[in-house]
């Protein structure tokens, strides 16, 4: 397996202690251009040709500059999101014996309930309880609480459709046909995972605890909402920016597979979860990825002149298993797909 040496990663500085990522005030409290980008989903789907063209261009800039943006006017009911949070709270509150078969399951199990990231690897050092369940092509769901299955099925279908439409627009923003990325990644039969996160109050030293360390996501696109308590931070220009959503908005996070398929043009966003001492926090994730057996490689049309392709093809199942079985460390997992490029005198590109 060809690998590159991991790039060193220095944690970015926290801006002003508590940076503000709310549009209008700017991510650094300065001008609005520093704010987290906003994508109007309704314009992408229903706008005029000119409106949609501008929205696609803005979406491309968001993917290139941030790898992270907010989506508004998405059509996913707020009541459905609230029902999902309540069902997850009920699950986390169940007696251990009613969750036993899924507790600390192996990384590729279709249902996992646990703490930390993967406790066997990280020793549950991080302050998080979670539920992970495969949602597509088949929904896997704990038996209790009984209402969780129907809620999860509806939520996964609505968010999967939205993420697939975002992938179409992202493909266009790269100068490709709208369906090109979907075709390359077999998104019609995509793999989807749902994750419910519960971050308890921080009772250790200092004002903040680490709920989840700095990392990028193994999939293509991650959709996230939280329960009104901030805690998601994204790295931008070497600094941590606190992600403060507009009411009802989702966050979208570019994952490793987008960086690979775009040949490095769009970067996977490094992000983390922090928790304060006063409030517990919940967030919920819907992530779409290539089908498990898809070999993900850059779209050939995006080879950079003089540099060629930055990544080799890796089967998504193998990539996910690697990332999920190792400690989270920024974007280290991408090194299993990254080529070491050397141009020879004839202009050829070799890798090893």
How are the elements arranged and paired?
Layout: E1 13-14, E2 38-40, H1 41-46, H2 49-65, E3 68-72, H3 78-92, H4 96-99, E4 111-115, H5 119-122, E5 129-136, H6 147-173, H7 180-185, E6 191-199, E7 208-215, E8 221-226, E9 232-236, E10 239-242, E11 250-254, H8 256-261, E12 271-276, E13 281-289, E14 295-296, E15 314-315, H9 316-324, E16 342-343, E17 349-350
Parallel strand pairs: 1-10, 2-3
Antiparallel strand pairs: 3-11, 4-5, 5-6, 6-13, 7-12, 8-11, 8-13, 9-10, 9-12, 14-15, 16-17
InterPro entries: DIOX_N, IPNS-like_FE2OG_OXY, IPNS-like_sf, Oxoglu/Fe-dep_dioxygenase_dom, Plant_2OG-oxidoreductases
Family: Belongs to the iron/ascorbate-dependent oxidoreductase family.
Pfam families: 2OG-FeII_Oxy, DIOX_N
What is the structural class?
alpha+beta
Biggest sheet features: 8 strands, mixed
What is the CATH top level name? Mainly Beta
CATH architecture: Sandwich
How many discrete domains? 1
CATH topology: Jelly Rolls
Shape: globular
Helical amount: 25-40%
Mean pLDDT: 81
Radius of gyration: 20 Å
Low-confidence stretches: 1-34, 117-124, 341-352
Q: With helices defined by DSSP (H or I, 4 residues minimum), what is the helix count?
A: 9
Q: What strand order characterises the main sheet?
A: 2-3-11-8-13-6-5-4
GO molecular function, one term: oxidoreductase activity
Keywords: Iron, Metal-binding, Oxidoreductase
InterPro entries: DIOX_N, IPNS-like_FE2OG_OXY, IPNS-like_sf, Oxoglu/Fe-dep_dioxygenase_dom, Plant_2OG-oxidoreductases
Family: Belongs to the iron/ascorbate-dependent oxidoreductase family.
